[in-house]
Amino acid sequence: MQAPEKNRSFTQLIEFEIEPHQQPALVSALSMQTERLARDYAGFLSASIQASDDGRRVLNYLQWQTREAGEAAFRQFESGEQDFWHLIRAHQAKTVTFGSFQVLHSLERSHDNALHCHLVG
């Protein structure tokens, strides 16, 4: 039996396809935006920004305590002064792929090198 949806954390994945010369600037802009999201929006858990070796893709991973927290932050992000659509245009993204996921299983290593598994459900 799975845990109720409201008890699951929520992940947003955003993949950008860009020209290689745009990758460093997009990574920098996403880093600033992500720090602002972490600071200003309740329910933020973690984030990472990953760049492909070929320079053509950037993946932005955002994890929230709940779907509602993630969606509320993204709505505000869309309408802010440095909105998400401006970011896409400024860095000439060819494609942007969005994905939303409920976290059902996670595995992480703690500071003492132990592995911790978290199953939801």
What does this 3D model show about the protein?
With 121 residues, the protein is α+β, with helices and mostly antiparallel strands. The chain has a single domain (8-119), classed as Alpha-Beta Plaits. It contains 3 helices and 6 strands. It has helices at residues 23-40, 67-79, 84-90, and strands at residues 10-17, 44-51, 57-64, 95-102, 105-109, 115-119. The strands form 2 sheets. Strands 2-3-1-4 form a 4-stranded antiparallel sheet. It is globular and about 40 Å long. It starts with 9 loop residues before the first strand and ends with a strand. The model has no long low-confidence stretch (mean pLDDT 83).
Q: What is the element layout, followed by pairings?
A:
Elements: E1 10-17, H1 23-40, E2 44-51, E3 57-64, H2 67-79, H3 84-90, E4 95-102, E5 105-109, E6 115-119
Antiparallel strand pairs: 1-3, 1-4, 2-3, 5-6
InterPro entries: ABM_dom (IPR007138), Dimeric_a/b-barrel (IPR011008)
Organism: Pseudomonas violetae
Domain ABM: 10-73
